[in-house]
Design brief:
The structure is a single chain. It contains no helices and 13 strands.
Length: about 120
């Protein structure tokens, strides 16, 4: 099993309004671990994990047909995700702000794979 180094992909992303991270190329990666941490006392929002085949059209990652989401409820917090993204080429984070300001989000990721890929 090979793995990537822990990599920051979101630094102080502004979640006082809707926020979309840069995309991560996950082609040839088997498992992706993601850590999101947020700082806020007032933002209420929903975090969506989004995937794409072409880095143009994105949809929400689902489990059993239901989008994988995490609520931000006017408090600091964090969430770890263990993702199997074999079928997808790109990954990103979308935060849908429903109310409140200010707030920031940070994100790190690490991946692993078998075989000769990457």
């Amino acid at each position: 099993m090979k793995s990537t180094p822990l990599t920051t992909f979101i630094t102080a992303g502004n979640i006082a309004s809707d926020f979309t991270s840069n995309s991560i190329d996950v082609r040839a990666l088997d498992r992706v671990g993601v850590l999101l941490t947020w700082t806020t006392a007032a933002v209420n929002a929903v975090i969506y994990l989004q995937v794409s085949l072409d880095d143009i059209t994105y949809g929400n990652l689902t489990q059993g047909g239901t989008p994988i989401t995490t609520a931000i409820a006017a408090a600091n917090g964090s969430q770890l995700y263990d993702l199997d993204l074999d079928a997808f080429s790109y990954f990103r984070v979308f935060v849908d702000n429903t109310s409140g300001t200010p707030g920031t989000i940070d994100g790190k990721w690490r991946a692993s794979w078998d075989g000769l890929a990457a």
